[in-house]
Write a structure and sequence with these properties.
With 255 residues, the protein is an alpha+beta fold. The chain folds into 2 domains: 181 residues, Beta-Lactamase (2-Layer Sandwich); 59 residues, Winged helix-like DNA-binding domain superfamily/Winged helix DNA-binding domain (Arc Repressor Mutant, subunit A, Orthogonal Bundle). Helix content is 46%, strand content 14%. It has a 5-stranded antiparallel β-sheet, with helices on both faces. A hairpin with a 4-residue loop joins strand 1 and strand 2. The mean pLDDT is 87.
């Protein structure tokens, strides 16, 4: 599902502010709430949720909501009862596509959607009609089975659907949010953050490139690559390429 990205200069400036802002409110799990709040200003919505989902285990991990929920216990029974029958929900699992930003209207007409059990028993009671969803890889879950992802979902009530501009902004933002989540995980583990250049180099190492191949890809000498790796090892407190990759990219097998 490929969208034509059409965004204006103002949108791009706001997007840049979101991905480059210095966030001090690091939670125990997930992303800084200030970042999620900024996203609701970028993509108009009534609510946004950021959470892990393991469809194999029929469970969710951390859950962040903006605005925050009232603290009551959520009943996930209707959600899981209709999950595999709801094309927008199970699409990432059935297709393996974690890159596309999707809307409910990509799968159903309005009449079709309102006749589904997912809408009737789960979304409508919450007052929501439209969704815009972006996924990130989450690596293997406790169940050991595939089907684990991190999902960012924007919700709207009755009224206009999300537009291609909204989809385009999230498509542009997706890799930056992935990096923001990884950086948050590193901070929580007490692992020093790498520079963008170091991460770029380590991604090539993770792909199996030799120092010479990395140098050719980045336009630097093999000696420069070795010095970068030495700095990476020192920063991550490891002594090998494999250990550096596993430390920096614990979920790289799902990327």
């Amino acid at each position: 599902m490929t969208a034509q990205v059409m965004v204006g200069e103002l949108d791009l400036r706001r997007l840049l502010g979101i991905v480059t802002g210095n966030r001090s409110d690091l939670p125990a799990e997930g992303l800084p709430l200030s970042l999620l709040a900024d996203l609701t200003d970028l993509v108009r919505c009534d609510a946004v949720s950021f959470f892990t989902l393991d469809s194999g285990a029929r469970a969710t991990g951390f859950m962040q909501d903006v605005p925050a929920q009232d603290g009551g216990e959520d009943d996930d029974g209707p959600f899981w009862a209709h999950y595999w029958d709801s094309d927008p929900c199970c699409y990432p699992d059935r297709s393996g596509d974690l890159r596309s930003v999707t809307r409910i209207s990509d799968f159903y007409s309005g009449r079709q959607w309102r006749s589904t059990g997912m809408y009737r028993d789960y979304l409508r009671p919450a007052g929501f009609e439209h969704e815009l969803m972006m996924c990130l890889p989450a690596g293997p879950g406790p169940s050991g089975a595939p089907g684990r992802s991190i999902r960012l979902i924007f919700f709207r009530g009755p009224g206009p659907d999300f537009c291609e501009r909204d989809r385009g902004l999230l498509t542009l933002l997706r890799p930056h949010l992935h990096e923001a989540y990884r950086a948050a995980e590193l901070r929580r583990r007490g692992t020093p953050e790498l520079t963008l250049r170091q991460r770029e180099l380590l991604h090539l190492v993770a792909e199996g490139c030799t120092n010479a191949q990395v140098g050719r890809r980045l336009g630097v000498s093999e000696g420069t690559v070795r010095r970068h790796l030495e700095n990476i090892y020192a920063r991550l407190q490891v002594s090998s390429r494999t250990a550096a990759v596993l430390q920096a990219f614990p979920d790289r097998a799902a990327v």
